[in-house]
Design goal:
transmembrane; single chain; O-Antigen ligase; 446 residues
């Protein structure tokens, strides 16, 4: 019994290290900027990530290796080598080689350690993910409450800077909310989940949904809707609807629905203005999506006034215009690209073509397509818990590869390592999930 507990705690330790790397930025912002431990320090970020790497090192490091997705492993490694080669020999942009080299070493170290992480982290990954996201969400809520400049209606993010230069990054908090929502739902719908666990998981999922709306991240909302659509297409049929109906009318199902409903009603009773806040965010999201679509179509609003793109969308339009000019007037330059970090495109896939050339673009885009094939296959056919989590996480991240950031940023590279390790591989031992019941349980040491 003690051996089993120690083994589970060891698995949770490795899972914690994984989440510190792929979802640690909300806590980094909270500690650095809100608690003022190291404002604006990139050194603190590097140390935080290094701590995550150390925490996730298995006791059996290098004694037992686990096979990743070999094809995509070599694709990712080739892309990293291509990026570093351009950084040293074809640098036409900012010169931050030392910092970039440290970050590349972290990505490679993460990939190496992941190959040593056992498949049995599947047993704990969603529990640790749900609780880790909860801690990050609570840190965000604390920062918002304590920030006198933040009011309901603004995007939820930890702001830093002085005066008019105060800014924040709501996208890392929206990603955290997505991770928390998926982990909570998978945890709640485990085949052996009791009433308390299932209710707690559903409450956590709803809480993460609220945080997602508060961040007002269009890319995150869009990717969540895509994931929901894929899940519905994969699972909503006559048989599942009948099973769902039977579960809903069972005593357990009724209890599970009533507990979150009563808790929400009590919250509404204490804060009757909450409906107005929810509707205001809903209308704001709708208006922002609508204005961007109309602006892209060169249309005008119903009030006959001009509609405008927001700053991020406008930047991407400029990027596509730049790419179009390059294609029309300098197509031959795209063979090798314009150089490492030559132009900030805010569209990672497009930046690989403009900066890293055709080969870099093919490496990156082929890798993304192969990941998507594996993710969709898992969503439709079912899988063990870590497969489902990684598949949905990839759907969330996939949209970001077209809507924000740079291809060589750690925030975009670290998840790719996780996908290489756990997406599209063979698992010799299986754990039942709520999407697939024909699985056998693995033996647990101790």
């Amino acid at each position: 019994m003690i051996g089993r507990l120690i083994y589970r705690l060891d698995l949770m330790r490795m899972c914690l290290g994984i989440f510190l790397l792929i979802d640690g930025f909300p806590l980094i912002f909270y500690i650095k900027e809100f608690l003022r431990v190291a404002p604006g320090s990139t050194t603190f970020t590097a140390i935080f990530i290094l701590v995550g790497l150390i925490i996730m090192i298995p006791i059996s490091m290098f004694r037992k290796l686990y096979k990743p997705n070999v094809t995509l492993f070599w694709f990712l490694l080739a892309f990293l080598v291509w990026c570093m080669a351009y950084m040293f020999f074809y640098n036409r942009g900012d010169n931050e080689r030392t910092k970039d080299l440290i970050y590349y070493s972290y990505v490679i170290a993460f990939l190496i350690i992941l190959v040593n992480v056992p498949n049995t982290v599947n047993r704990e990954i969603v529990i640790v993910g749900a609780l880790f996201a909860l801690v990050s969400n609570l840190a965000l809520i604390h920062a918002l409450i304590a920030d006198p400049t933040w009011t309901i209606g603004q995007r939820a993010a930890i702001l830093y800077g002085e005066g008019d230069n105060r800014t924040g990054n709501p996208h890392v908090f929206s990603r955290n909310a997505q991770i928390g929502m998926v982990c909570s739902l998978i945890w709640a719908y485990r085949s052996n989940a009791g009433i308390f666990v299932r209710s707690f998981g559903l409450i956590l999922a709803f809480f993460n949904l609220i945080i997602l709306v508060l961040t007002f991240s269009k890319g995150a909302i869009l990717s969540t809707l895509i994931a929901l659509g894929l899940f519905a297409a994969a699972n909503f049929n006559a048989k599942t609807m009948r099973n769902m109906g039977r579960q809903l009318v069972s005593p357990t199902g009724i209890a599970i629905m009533l507990i979150p409903f009563i808790a929400f009603q009590y919250f509404i009773y204490k804060r009757p203005d909450i409906w107005g806040i929810i509707l205001s965010y809903g209308f704001a999201i709708y208006d922002r999506f609508s204005e961007n679509i109309l602006a892209l179509l060169a249309d005008r609003s119903a009030n006959a006034g001009p509609v405008e793109l927001d700053a991020s969308s406008a930047n991407r339009v400029v990027s596509f215009h730049f790419a179009n000019l390059a294609l029309e007037g300098h197509a031959h330059r795209l063979i090798f690209g314009f150089g490492y970090k030559f132009q900030y495109m805010d569209v990672p896939v497009l930046e690989t073509l403009i900066c890293l050339g055709i080969f870099g673009f093919l490496l990156y885009s082929t890798m993304l397509v192969k990941f998507m094939i594996h993710a969709v296959r898992i969503i439709f056919k079912g899988g063990i818990e870590i497969e489902l989590f990684i598949a949905f996480l990839y759907i969330f991240v996939f949209v970001n590869y077209f809507t924000g950031g740079r291809p060589y940023e750690m925030a975009n590279l670290l998840p790719l390592c996780l996908f290489v390790r756990f997406l599209g591989i063979y698992y010799p031992d299986y754990v039942p999930s709520f999407l697939s019941s024909a699985r056998k349980l693995p033996a647990v040491p101790g």
